Amino acid sequence: MVLAVLAGAPLVLAFCLLAIGAVASLLIGWRAGAAYPPAGPFVSVEGGRLATLQAGPETGARGTVVLIHGASANAADPMEGIGRTLAAQGFRVIAFDRPGHGWSDRLGAGTPASQADRIATALAILDLGPVIVLGHSWGGAAALALALDHPERVSALALVAPVALPFPQRMTLPWYWRLAAKPPVAWLLSRTLGPPLALYHLRGAAAHAFRPQPEAADYLDRARVPLALRPGALFANVEDLMGLPAALERQNPRYGDLRLPVLVVSGDADPLVRIDAQAGPLAERIPGARLVRLPGIGHMVPWVAGDRLAEAVADLVPVAATTR
């Protein structure tokens, strides 16, 4: 009898931890949603809605720039980092919450191509295009997919610290990460232990993303980062990241077919997406692409080198106009 009780103790403990985590996850998600409600118009597409943040003039604008954010983020990240600067310079700026992130519905879209399809539909509904598309990090892959699959919607690309090329085969995750990323396990963790653990590591993760620069003042609040702690967004982020290698393998052979102005911007001190592994080789693959190397700058280019980035994006306007 005693042995049976002892044998069952780990299961009871595991159940209790999951139950406590589930309650904590509900509270974390509720607090994030209440603190950062939708702050821009929605665009209804088949199966749901995409959330946007918009800034700048709707008429008489110098051009329209669409912002696509990276992993563990939402539309506020690029909008506050670079979007407000572009809007102040006379651009109309539209930042999308990618499907499953921020306040956008998931829409069954977990790959760069499928998310690009949903954004292209939204642009058509908004009667926008061709537009300059700026994608940061994971968003760079989505921006490339948008240009490849919907060229009528894109006049130029600005790829900022982009993740776009296949990863080396030797880059494999430890077994416990591979287990945690399995859909049933990831779903369970995203609704139990995931949000509390992510909340605990939130500040450190943000600081690491900004290195070697210091984290921008009030970054977590201005970029509405806690929205990524909600269970649905957490699970969507895992799906996006785990599906990215195969997606890049599929779209990588097509980069040489791009025939539009492409700007690739990356910091040479980026510890997350190294310029010699991604931005540099990518610029060589795309005909006519221009690589802007930022000495000493890390991954968060839109926040720490916003003026330089805005200047480079503005330079795309006359080039895009002549290539239409």
UniProtKB/TrEMBL annotation:
GO terms for cellular component: membrane. One of its GO terms (molecular function) is hydrolase activity. Keywords: Hydrolase. InterPro entries: AB_hydrolase_1, AB_hydrolase_fold, AB_hydrolase_sf, Epox_hydrolase-like. Gene3D superfamilies: alpha/beta hydrolase. This is 2-hydroxy-6-oxononadienedioate/2-hydroxy-6-oxononatrienedioate hydrolase. The keyword RNA-binding does not apply. The keyword Hydrolase applies. Residues 64-303 form the AB hydrolase-1 domain.
